[in-house]
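dumping the sequnces here before i forget
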Amino acid sequence: MNTRKLMSTALLAVGGAVLSASLYAADTIKVGVLHSLSGTMAISETTLKDTVLMMIEDQNKKGGLLGKKLEPVVVDPASNWPLFAEKTRELLSQEEVDVIFGCWTSVSRKSVLPVIEELNGLLFYPVQYEGEESSKNVFYTGAAPNQQAIPAVDYLMNELDVKRWVLAGTDYVYPRTTNKVLEAYLKAKGVADKDIMINYTPFGHSDWQSIVADVKKFGSEGKKTAVVSTINGDANVPFYKELGNQGISAEDIPVVAFSVGEEELSGIDTKPLVGHLAAWNYFQSVESDENDEFIAKWKKYIKDDKRVTNDPMEATYIGFNMWVAAVEKAGTTDVDAVEQAMIGITTPNLTGGTAVMNRNHHLSKPVLIGEIQADGQFEVVSETMGVVPGDAWSDYLPGSKDIVADWVTPIRCGNFNAKTAKCSGQNM
Amino acid sequence: MNKLPIHYFLSLVIAVFGVVYSQQSAAESSTPNPSVTLAELSEPLVGANLRKMPALVERLELEAGTTALPVLEALLAGELYYQRSDKRLVRAVSQTEGGFQISDVFSTDALGSVAKKQIRKVKLNNALRVQLRAAIGRLTLLSDDPKLRLTAIENMLKKPDQANLELLQQARAQETDSDIVDLLNEALALNLLIAATDRQPRLQALRELEGSLQPAVRNALQALVALDADAQPLEQDIVVFTSASRLLDKIDGKLGFYAFLETLFFGLSLGSVLLLIATGLAITFGVMGVINMAHGELIMLGAYTTYVVQLLMPNHIEYSLLVAVPAAFLVSGLVGILIERSVIRFLHGRPLETLLATFGVSLILQQAVRSIFSPLNRQVATPEWMSGSLEINSIFSLTYNRLYVFLFALLVFVLLQLILKRTTLGLNVRAVSQNRSMAKAMGVKTDWVDAMTFGLGSGVAGLAGVALSQLTNVGPNLGQAYIIDSFMVVVFGGVGNLWGTLVAGLSLGVFTKFLEPATGAVMAKILVLVFIVLFIQKRPRGLFPQQGRAAE
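..and the predicted 3d for all of it:
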């Protein structure tokens, strides 16, 4: 670039900045993207940022929304939970975005929650989570426990005849709550205390020797044993490696995981893992026209033929399309109008069915159980009949049995006790 | 398995009537039925759904016998496909350059290579794999290959099944290999123990099982000594009960011993990882006194070097680690020297500033790796010789990757000791660390020695990275996960003392692993930290403080 060109570019940029302040406010709809681009969670969240950007680019090609262009505002909360709250405040009060797509871990969502409720923003949360929450300002497009954990356990119990259970998880809110739900569910199904082993490990745990040896011992006592894993992120790789090295195959002790998808598997050699299971609402290997189109679009956008797609990406895809449909239906981006328009909206999902947004701000989704293949993809071995509506408040926990979330008048409450007919605010 | 194959039931009934009949039925079940060809039997596999598969596999085993083995084995390996165009069953092996190499599953004739779209996989799941393995076991129990026979028997030992009894007896009569005979005797005795009702054969079986460590044997014994609600033995025959419980006690004693050995090995292996990551720091922090917060990132660079080396030699993964070791040493060492020359030497004697500056360097290195290699973890392949485990007996085995890392850690430690004690560089390093100005006065180029020492410590961090790439994730956060641990070991062992680092690393590893079963992994970590805090209160200079003038 020569000097003159550089100067004119600089001038243009300055002029653009001055103009944009006045022009863009009227001409674009701002979409906030709140995913970590650095720190521990960058590994998972960068993909979702790219997915949202791809969807926005796509929508703009179709002519934008309500005659306006969509403008992404990307911020980096850096895997730092309090920073998520600060960045949300920045997005809502300085950038004045109309909607936010973001968060991955439950702890980041919990830290965003008070801010987004105070400033009346709109958040689409695309990851499977532990439930026990429903906010007016959040739409949960990932799976609730009854759309992932419970059907997976049912599969193991009915198809593989599993009698003993190891619930292994990373030590934080999602595994702890999910395991509480699962433990209550297993006991309701008549599993004895001594046939359940619960184990928690720190984030990023890498020395799995003794835990795997314990699991091996627990599983060698004559009854069919399975591991239900809520182990998060990176820690899975050394866990599976250790299983392989200690000679535990999926035939002896199958592991069903809720946080292991195509993306996580792309970092490891999957040959020793063949046959281990994962439960999701979407697999890249599912054959449908929408999915083929989505995969092709993604590979083209990211310019890498080897990149994979996964469940949270599908949840982002559904959430984005639903928001677009709701804005069109409401004719405005006003949060309250869009929130009401969202309920009942349907869009096609990527597995050949239809996603419906329910009154509790959760989706109806199909549940798929897949086995890991040697090429890092999943093969579906079981599928629920039709879609399962997401249940915000688990039916298996004593505290939340009677609670429902319903955002339609007359109830309009995320935490409504059906017995006492009282609403105790949005959340616990 | 959901449905019991008919011949299980048949042979179970027949077994009651006598051995002659049952042997006949076993013979029948493995004789091919000439009226139906293998190709006809296999044909329904094309496009079959998972619910239909078990019956199809069972029919293949019963009617085609050993001739069905190629089909069953291809299916078990997940390599059985069919062509979309003509529904022909083929065995397909994926190629590294994409696509599949296919061959006829019956005649093994090569059929060239095809794209993924042209073939479809025959469906397979876990339950089916279990069934296939059992079927192949029954069909190969009498095979000529001793290895196949051994796996078949091991499989049968895992799940004792009366239906296999006559097959085992037949195999026992023909077997000549003494190891396999022992295993067969064990399997037969176990089956006898479960099936027999008279005292003599059961006692005989118990005697045979003396010394066996198979989990299935222990389970059978536990069932024998089970007590009812009034704490009375369920077993009627008191002689059998007492000898079974005596045998169980013996086995449990042995199990306890091996469990202890296993925990010790786990501890030493964790300790060797701690030793590896701390040795480099023991030099830069211990000997030079530089608080290097970027130490973890130097480890990370070593791991990424391994990844790059594997990218450069994709066809020689087996040897990649041998190349990666010197390469990682050089890369991390050079980056270390660069950090020392550009940052640390200006901050000599200002620990707080050094800490902050090197912390900044660590963030820069992390983000650099994130930008160059992407924030996603990179896949580092494990060579064949490092996977799996060394089986000492059926309950005690040592995983190869941990074993090699342990040996590697000791090797690095010894080499480093030699360098420090036997070379001119080592002499200079020790001289400068004891008395900088005196060393300078004697003509030692302290600047050069500083750079070399830091490079040496950083290089060793790179070596730790190579080892860690085999144990954990290779990603931008790799270093952060280990920086606390490495400081912990060096401080605990005593700053400036390599032997202290060795003892501290190994003992902390063993300590953690013995705590873990009782407290869980999270609590164990906390307790170890608390222990070290208390220990440092009592002995601020660590396990082996430097003495004499060197201590100043």
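The radius of gyration of chain A is 22 Å.
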